[in-house]
Amino acid sequence: MFGAKVQIAALEKGIDFELIMVPFTKGDAYEPKHPDVLRINPVKQQVPVLIDGEVELFDSTQIFEYLEDRYPTPALWPEGIAERARARQLEQKSDEVFFPNVIRLFGLQHDMQSAPAVAACAACARYYDEMEGLLATRDCLAGTYSFADIAFYMACIFADRKGARMTQATPRLLAWRSRMGERPAARTVVEPMMRFLASEGRDVASFLMPR
Ligand SMILES: N[C@@H](CCC(=O)N[C@@H](CS)C(=O)NCC(=O)O)C(=O)O
Description:
It is a single chain. The protein has eight helices and two strands, in the order ααββαααααα. By secondary structure, it is mainly alpha-helical. It folds into two domains: about 1-70, Glutaredoxin (3-Layer(aba) Sandwich); about 80-185, Glutathione S-transferase Yfyf (Class Pi), Chain A, domain 2, CATH 1.20.1050.10. Strands 1-2 form a two-stranded antiparallel sheet. Helix 1 (about 1-10) packs parallel to helix 3 and helix 4 runs antiparallel to helix 5 (about 115-135). The chain is globular, with a radius of gyration of 17 Å. The site of glutathione has 12 residues, from helix 1 and helix 3.
């Protein structure tokens, strides 16, 4: 999810990069850890990590900031200090407020009727409502297409897979999701991911099935 965010952003910016997929076991344990991951992110040991010459970074949000400074065109933060601040907040909220509900659902798939699962789905629905409100006056979450859209689009894919589905209650958000999914950068990243999941017998929502 977090690696895909960075990959989409790099494609949007037309950056010539090498993608190294870390190996992982099918038990979701993400083992063994790649040596570059262990060096760059020794405590958390998570992907993505970025190596650009002497610059080595971890955390998708931090990498977004670096990409924008290093490769400013096309811009993926809006213009204006206030607009950029709001966009950054939305990007962070997607990862830190919305997505933790989805992470909870990963461990509750066996009992989606349980109180914690229902609560996590309800929290996602409230967040969808909030984003629906933003889209009343704009096509993208932060005005212009930005890292905030990339982050939330990826989070929405995993939310859907894990049962926190959008409904017709948020028609503008559904339309936004379709627009985001049509972007070549998103398709390049998401379609092979979904094909892989399908080949492994994992959940793939119908709106994400490879065309
Ligand atoms: N805040 C981090 C989260 C990174 C993260 O959770 N990465 C997951 C994969 S999407 C990971 O590497 N998990 C393996 C582990 O925690 O051992 C970011 O934005 O990059």
